[in-house]
Design a protein that fits this description.
The complex is a heterodimer. Chain A is of the alpha+beta class. In chain A, about 35% of the residues lie in helices and about 25% in strands. Chain A has a single domain, classed as 2-Layer Sandwich (Heat Shock Protein 90), CATH 3.30.565. Chain A has helices at about 25-35, 40-60, 90, 100-105, 115-120; strands at about 10-15, 65-70, 75-80, 125-130, 135-140. In chain A, β2 (about 65-70) and β3 form a beta hairpin. In chain A, α1 (about 25-35) packs antiparallel against α2 (about 40-60) and α2 (about 40-60) packs antiparallel against α5. The mean pLDDT of chain A is about 90. Chain B is α/β, with parallel strands linked by helices. Chain B has a single domain (about 5-110), classed as HprK N-terminal domain-like (Udp-n-acetylmuramoylalanyl-d-glutamate--2,6- Diaminopimelate Ligase, Chain: A, domain 1). In chain B, β3 (about 45-50), α3 and β4 (about 65-70) form a beta-alpha-beta unit. Chain B is globular and about 35 Å long. Classes of the chains: A alpha+beta, B alpha/beta. The interface of A and B includes residues 23, 26, 47, 48 and 55 of A.
Chain lengths: ~150, ~120
């Protein structure tokens, strides 16, 4: 069913210097998924995961690139940045651990829930990071039977 | 209850006149941490917060919430209201503190979401 014809590719650039714009990509993705008729639960999972990722790109990585591939069977998302990287991924993945400065907390983020939320809401989650080089995340939401 | 009831209970001001105040709401969440809202909320329709920035609207949008109450008299700026209007959300502003606003709504039957 998911042949090339059914595939939709989307790309977003997340700015690193404008926190107020973080979330534009996930809002756009959410609207498109709704229009395309994806099930509401899958739409929400994908949108929340991408939103957390977008916030991370904006506050930690100085911006980055998002690619999304949609097929009737799954929503797959790649987030790539050239930010400072994550020294200890296992630690970063634990709920409540955050390196966000107070300034970010005052904006309502930095509770150490971003990466755990992304993993929780997706069916596949992979993260690779190199200090000084950047971080790469791939995550996917499978579309269950309607 | 309806959004119009929340306005009455909290003596709140409606900042998005186009919003549909007849929409029913059953559950709410009160938090200043948007990551927590994204982590713990399920099928809640009202967000009560003291945080005042565009990410409040974006977070509520991600969670399919339809009404945001800003407590302690915080007034969102025009950009935030525009984001909410695009999404058909109701934005309310009350002078009550977070604790009191939540208590008043709970007393009238509004509940937290089911985890």
């Amino acid at each position: 069913m998911a042949d090339a014809q059914d595939k939709i590719l989307l790309e977003y650039q997340v700015p690193g210097d404008d926190f107020t714009r973080a979330g534009e990509a996930s809002a756009d993705l959410k609207a498109r998924l709704k229009t395309l008729g994806f099930p509401a639960a899958s739409v929400r999972k994908a949108a929340i995961s991408l939103y957390e990722g977008e916030i991370n790109l904006a506050i930690h990585a100085g911006g980055g690139k998002i690619r999304v591939e949609l097929t009737p069977a799954r929503i797959e998302m790649w987030l790539d940045d050239e930010g400072p990287g994550i020294p200890d991924i296992a630690l970063a993945m634990s709920e409540g651990y955050s390196t966000a400065p107070d300034e970010v907390r005052s904006l309502g983020f930095g509770a150490g829930m971003g990466l755990p939320n992304m993993k929780k809401y997706t069916d596949e989650f992979e993260i690779a990071s190199e200090v000084g080089r950047g971080t790469h995340i791939r995550m996917a939401v499978d579309i269950g039977p309607a | 209850m309806k959004i119009s009831d929340i306005i009455q209970i909290l003596d709140a001001q409606l900042l998005t006149p186009q919003a549909d105040l007849e929409r029913e709401v059953h559950t709410a969440c009160g938090s200043d941490m948007m990551s927590d809202v994204l982590a713990f909320v399920k099928d809640q329709s009202v967000l009560i917060t003291g945080l005042n920035n565009p990410q409040v609207v974006r977070t509520a949008d991600m969670m399919d919430m339809i009404c945001i109450v800003f407590v302690r008299g915080k007034r969102p700026d025009a950009g935030i209201l525009a984001l909410a209007n695009e999404r058909g959300m109701a934005i309310l502003c009350t002078e009550h503190t977070m604790f009191t606003a939540c208590g008043l709504l709970y007393e009238q039957g509004l509940r937290g979401g089911v985890h």
